[in-house]
Specification:
The protein is of the alpha/beta class and 270 residues long. The protein has helices spanning 78-89, 105-108, 122-140, 157-168, 188-195, 214-229, 249-263; strands at 21-23, 28-30, 35-37, 39-42, 56-59, 94-98, 150-155, 175-179, 203-209, 237-242. It has one domain: 3-Layer(aba) Sandwich (Rossmann fold). The protein is 32% helix and 17% strand.
């Protein structure tokens, strides 16, 4: 049977996730929000053939990380990037990717309210990751569950909640990849960061593009200055401005491997 497509038809999206990515077979209940949420899992290439345990990256907006079929505006290519990192440098990680809630995304990814977007649900969302998702992953997969082997990474609003998570859950996360953070969403982030300082060994990686607007540059500069004034060690803080970088998955995906390598490199103890 022949099927003819009109010249103006958009090409169909094609699945692009590698074979070591899976959608966990049931949705997880978010107790404080009375919702359910899908979680995606990336296992390292050596997982099935070894007895090793692995560090874990918790990431937001799971739909956008592995697969063009589910991505909003192109995927990050996390699976291909980590497969290559494993092959070329022997660095392997488990990735736990929590899907966003669509219309509830802005609320879930901020612990502070916003006049335009409404109530804050970030505390409840992070409690879900810490109290529901992480225990499940640590029980059912070979993880290194301690804080030194646990990172949280996200972009835009995901960057904001990752910044919060590092400070609010210091015994769970010791590393945060904060990409193009939406510090604009609430000025409370600055007062909170001053009140609840991160542990001195916490690794803070903030990355943004110079084409994301003056607000992005000003906000990240303010946070960089504040962390320096608060005495967070320079060796554990990196603010990276990418020339030509725009607010999109292309930027975040291209910088992902460098961020992970920096977050997990050897560091001084305090």
């Amino acid at each position: 049977m022949l099927v003819f497509m009109s010249a103006c038809s958009e090409p169909q999206k094609q699945a692009s996730a590698t074979s070591n990515v899976q959608l966990l077979p049931y949705q997880f209940l978010m107790p404080d929000l009375d919702r359910q949420r899908s979680v995606r899992l990336y296992l390292p290439p050596s997982y099935d053939a070894s007895a090793k345990s692995y560090p874990v990256l918790y990431m937001h907006d799971g739909q956008n990380l592995f697969d063009n079929l589910t991505a909003y505006a192109g995927e990050w290519g996390i699976d291909e990037s980590l497969n290559a990192l494993a092959k070329n440098e022997g660095l392997e990680f488990i990735v736990v990717a929590i899907d966003n809630g669509g219309e509830t995304r802005m609320n879930e990814l901020s612990p502070w309210p916003n006049k335009r977007f409404g109530e804050a649900q970030g505390k409840q969302y992070m409690n879900f990751i810490v109290d529901v998702v992480k225990p499940y992953i640590d029980t059912n997969f070979r993880t290194k569950p301690d804080r030194l082997n646990t990172a949280i990474i996200g972009s835009s609003m995901g960057g904001l909640i990752s910044h919060y998570a590092l400070h609010e859950y210091p015994d769970v996360f010791s590393k945060a990849g904060i990409f193009s953070p939406s510090y604009w969403y609430s000025q409370d982030v600055y007062a909170y960061t001053k009140l609840k300082k991160a542990k001195l060994d916490a690794r803070i990686y903030v990355m943004f593009g110079d084409q994301e607007g003056d607000g992005m540059i000003a906000d990240t500069t303010t946070m960089q200055r504040q962390l320096k004034q608060q005495g967070h060690p320079r060796s554990n803080t990196l603010f990276k401005r990418v020339i030509g970088g725009e607010h999109n998955e292309a930027l975040w995906g291209s910088e992902f491997v460098d961020s992970v390598k920096w977050l997990f490199q050897q560091q001084p103890t305090f």
